[in-house]
Amino acid sequence: YVDPRVIDRLVDETGDNPDDLAAAGRQEATIFFSDIAGYTSISERLTPAGLVHLMNEYFNMAGEPIMETGGLLDKFIGDAVMAFWCPPFVPTEDIAKLGSKVAIGEAAMIREFQKRVPDITGIRTGAPVVDIRIGLATGDVVVGSIGSANKRNFIVIGDTVNLSSRLEGANKFYGTQTLICERTHEMMGNGFTTREVDNLAVKGKDEAIRVYELYCAGAPSQDIVDVFGAFADGLALYRRCDWDKAAAKFNECLKAKPDDSPAKTFIARIERLKTEPPGKDWDGVWHSLEK
Question: Rounded CA gap, 33 and 82, in Å?
Fold first, then answer.
């Protein structure tokens, strides 16, 4: 029910004054949010007991890499998983790298988990498809024991938490699996393949951030290098309102990778912007209207 490291911290910090118990403090953390795509339709196909069994198996799989890397599994929210990495549990310089490592690992693990779904659910033909979307954000948060006089939780709160949740949801719009914020991208270090996807103002925020797709660990195939290069060129042309040349670059992406959803997203967006041109003060920021 409570991470053993949190219990140790609570005991260590009790001291003579119970009010000092794990007092909340501000620090930098990497926040992880994941969600199951199409969870509602999955839940409709299973009995309550069957759904609980499936979710317990899934949460067991999802929680292991988080704990193994020193992350704290904050909570399960329906089908969502929330976790974070921060001192004193892991060094500050490692928080984004560890979060990114887990995100890539979870994306791979879910493909293996899908093979087990027929046995878990007892549905041999037409078993539910379990896939996930992930958001990672790094920034200042408040971490500690927060709550009322009678009930407290050791949690993390702040705008970075909200941003992580919004990035998880934004995957639906871009057709990606994992989106990360600019700060995570800066701190994650080498060893990952990413591409800038957009300059996005998520719902509820006026300030835009550069958003990146976390694609894989290590170096990708040459085809992906070419696709990401064409996408970057298209993104630069798009921001200069050079619609036709931008669309041509995004179509290059689709020739090499026909299922490249971010390229499809921008081609559709460009068609809309051609008929409804932005104002002269347009800064290339896309304002999301969905969570």
Answer: 5
Residues 6+ apart with CB under 8 A from 17: none
Helix (H) or strand (E) holding 171: helix 159-174
Q: Where does the pLDDT of residue 148 fall: very low under 50, low under 70, confident under 90, or very high at 90 and above?
A: confident
Rounded distance between C-alpha atoms, residue 186 and residue 136, angstroms: 12
DSSP string, 226-277: HHHHHHHHHHHHHHTT-HHHHHHHHHHHHHH-TT-HHHHHHHHHHHHHHHSP
Please check whether residue 287 is in contact with residue 201, taking contact to mean a CB–CB distance below 8 angstroms: yes
What is the identity of the amino acid at 13?
E
pLDDT at 20 over 60: no
Q: Is the pTM of this model over 0.70?
A: yes
Q: C-alpha distances in angstroms, 234 versus 100, 171, 229, 278, 284?
A: 26, 20, 9, 18, 13
Identify the residue with better confidence: 202 or 67: 67
Q: What is the pLDDT of residue 14?
A: 54
φ and ψ at 272, to 5 degrees? -70, -40
Structural element, H or E, at residue 192: strand 192-201
Identify the CA nearest to 188 among candidates 62, 53, 75, 30: 30
